[in-house]
Specification:
alpha+beta; single chain; six-stranded antiparallel β-sheet; 160 residues; 4 helices
Length: 160
């Protein structure tokens, strides 16, 4: 696999603190050492950019009516691994990509797990079907009926 690239969207998002937690989780899991961080507020109208998550938090406390916020965290070489969290109008988009598959995927998974845990969602893995499903029961009943029919067959060819 050449590159990692994945994205997902969350609607009706209101908890800004979890977004910052997801960004920190991505930095730690990457690991992005040294991390490169860029946070852009109100990109559509009057962009304001800061370089750390702490500065971004301070800006949010001073200006709680932010229209949009883009958090981009990456490795020093952004093409290797990068995660972005775009928040706008109660919609959140998580994106991850990079040429270093393991690092980009680890950072994306950590951010996704942090966001998912906020809603109590676990990663998607289908449960194993129970052994005795309807199909298995039908097969068993058909086999029982066939075995009963075979017991009633007269196997003596001589009598005919």
């Amino acid at each position: 696999m050449d590159r990692f690239e994945l994205s997902e969207r969350w609607c009706a998002w209101r908890d800004i603190d979890v977004i910052f937690s997801a960004a920190r989780a991505a930095i730690e899991a990457g690991p992005f050492d040294p991390p490169v961080c860029e946070v852009v507020f109100n990109e559509e109208f009057d962009p304001f950019t800061v370089d750390t998550l702490e500065q971004a938090r301070e800006h949010l406390h001073r200006n709680p009516r932010v229209m949009s916020m883009d958090i981009i965290v990456s490795h020093i070489d952004e093409d290797e691994a990068r995660v972005s969290l775009r928040y706008s109008g109660e919609r959140l988009q998580l994106s991850g990509y990079g040429s270093d598959w393991n690092r980009a995927r680890a950072a994306y998974n950590a951010a996704q797990a942090e966001l998912s845990s906020h809603y109590g969602i676990t990663t998607f893995k289908l449960p194993k079907r129970p052994y005795d499903t309807v199909a298995e029961t039908r097969k068993r009943l058909e086999i029982d009926a066939l075995e009963a029919a075979l017991q009633n067959v007269d196997w003596n060819i001589e009598n005919r």
